[in-house]
UniProtKB/TrEMBL annotation:
This is Trafficking protein particle complex subunit 3-like protein. It comes from Neovison vison (American mink). The keyword Transport applies. One of its GO terms (cellular component) is Golgi apparatus. Belongs to the TRAPP small subunits family. BET3 subfamily. Keywords: Endoplasmic reticulum, ER-Golgi transport, Golgi apparatus, Transport.
Amino acid sequence: MYLGITPSVTCNNLSRTEFSLILDKNLLVESMEELPAGPSFLCYCHLFCGIIRGAVEMVPLAADVTFLQDRLKGDHVTEIGVTFLEKLDEKKYRRKK
């Protein structure tokens, strides 16, 4: 929402602990013409994974956020997988008065 991107959400897990965010439009991808030659493990869109992981921790939940598909690497869409791991201890995240 803050980045101007509206993803599609898909959930194929019966326990609803995993889902995917599919980005049809990605501003980071549109500003890149092609990946530079060199290490193929670079993923310029990992910024999104950190944003999502940080937002989920504010709830407080722990999540594993990974890239499943990347348009910069030749896929048709950008897909981010989110797996909820556990509920975090709320006492660590409360402000002390």
